[in-house]
Automatic annotation (TrEMBL):
<keyword id="KW-0863">Zinc-finger</keyword>
<keyword id="KW-0862">Zinc</keyword>
<keyword id="KW-0479">Metal-binding</keyword>
<keyword id="KW-0175">Coiled coil</keyword>
<dbReference type="GO" id="GO:0008270">
    <property type="term" value="F:zinc ion binding"/>
</dbReference>
<dbReference type="InterPro" id="IPR013083">
    <property type="entry name" value="Znf_RING/FYVE/PHD"/>
</dbReference>
<dbReference type="Pfam" id="PF13920">
    <property type="entry name" value="zf-C3HC4_3"/>
</dbReference>
<feature type="region of interest" description="Disordered">
    <location>
        <begin position="130"/>
        <end position="152"/>
    </location>
</feature>
<feature type="compositionally biased region" description="Polar residues">
    <location>
        <begin position="195"/>
        <end position="209"/>
    </location>
</feature>
<feature type="region of interest" description="Disordered">
    <location>
        <begin position="184"/>
        <end position="223"/>
    </location>
</feature>
<feature type="coiled-coil region">
    <location>
        <begin position="239"/>
        <end position="287"/>
    </location>
</feature>
<protein>
    <recommendedName>
        <fullName>RING-type domain-containing protein</fullName>
    </recommendedName>
</protein>
<dbReference type="InterPro" id="IPR001841">
    <property type="entry name" value="Znf_RING"/>
</dbReference>
<feature type="domain" description="RING-type">
    <location>
        <begin position="519"/>
        <end position="568"/>
    </location>
</feature>
Amino acid sequence: MGTLTANEPRLAEYCDHKLPTSCRLTSTPLCCACADNRNHSFTYSVYVDGVGLVQRGTRWQSYCWFCKTFWTNRLAGFPAEQSRIPHFPDQTDFIQRWYDFHRGYKLVESADGGSPETVPVVGIEPLCEAAPGELPPMTSAEHLAPEQSSLSDLLSQLRSNDASDSQPTASLAQQLDDLLAEADEEGSDADTTAGQAPSQSDFSITQRDSVPPLPTYGQISSSAAAQQRVVSLSIARDTSDIERRLEEARSQLEAAQREREEAAMSLENAESTVQARRERFRRLEREQRRQQTFARIFGTREEIEQQGEAYESPIGGMFSRAFDRYRRAEEARMNPPTAADDDDNNSMSQDTAIAELWSNMDPLGSSALPRSGPNGDSIVPYRLPSTHDYADEAAWMNQLTENSTAMRRQLVYLRHNAEYHLGRTARWRELTQGDSVPYADPSAVDGGPMSLIERERRVRDVIAQGRTRVEAAQRMLQSMDSLHHRPAERIPQRQYGLDIDDDRPEPKTDEEMTVVMCCQICYTQLADSAVLPCGHLAMCVYCADQVVPVREDDKTRVRGHCKCPVCRKTVKKRVRVYVT
């Protein structure tokens, strides 16, 4: 691994760590550490395979690979829980030296106070081959000294931390008092020095004292301890703030859980109430149906009170009506109708049937009615219409077919009626020729043999009239059948060809015959797959494979339950359409 940004220019919006860390965040000018806005903590969670999340991680473990390597190298040997990157430990010196390597030179102030001099900075190996957080090795002691001083600073800070932990620390108020006392002493010393006249020796001393002395190890330790105390106080404040917020979050969580439990209990109570009321409603509904059934069978209390003794329940009325029907049937069986009444009824029914038969022939005109010929046969003349319109002729033939069907039904009725009448007459003749006459009319018995003969004559006349009418209807039906089966040459033959004069519409224009054949799903392919039975051609074969899949053994049978994307009807088959 090397420094990928060794040859890249430094932009104004970049942070100080962007190029030294080779950060891979290309969408922001900040590095991972500067872009991290999380609160600092002593521990960070990290996932350990087989164990889970544990508090053993560092703040920079989730940074990009180069930023992670940079901070790992820069904080090697420094406690991670005491770091506050990117501000503490301070990396200004390292960054300044890195930019010296990046530029290839550094500016050094001249001894005579003139313009700064440019000193080339070149390492043994190129900067691009150095790992993030490290500098190329050099033989110059000028660049090794700052690195050693930074290491000594870190070690002194660590030793001061240990010393501060072992020795009792003063309170904040006591420290403020000590600082105020030191400030007063310095002020009094300055006043005393100002009141005295400066001498040559004093001038030399003053000139010597104007150069700031180098800090001693004790001063460095005390400053590091003060800085560490400030950091510890800020950490304590952060810790107390975190604990306070944690308590607030815990209380809010407990309140939300209580509200959830109360809502669950309310919902359970409401559900039980709904179940109870639903059960009560069903019970009342069953009771209402039971009351309605009881009232439908036995009646209501109001009806019983209104009718009093004359009240009859619905079920009782049902049995009463059934008994009345049974009684009337027994009376009809004990008192059968006479033969004269039967003859009158049969003649009336036959006259009604014949009238209906003739009325069905009215639409054909008066010329279609039967006429008696010279030998007494019925003749049905036929007259062609004045204009040979095949459409009117077809309508006439349809009407003729319907009339013939109605006549067939009437003829069947007349035939069955005549057979019934003949059978009844024969049975009556057998009964009258016997020794006893059961169910005989008393008036006929009292009249003697002449009345029986007269009645038999009337029966024969009625039978003859019915037979004559049946034969006339049969002849008329035969004539209509002959009219129905007309010669084949009179039926117009359908003509074929493209130049015949048929009901073909006018030719369509090019715009009307232009059809868009694009797929209605993807709109990028031709629609060549149709679905049956609706017949919509709206999909290409690629979309059809997704919407209407087919079986492997039969490419036309649909696999599963599919619907047409146009009309949403069930699809049974899918076919491929080829347009020529």
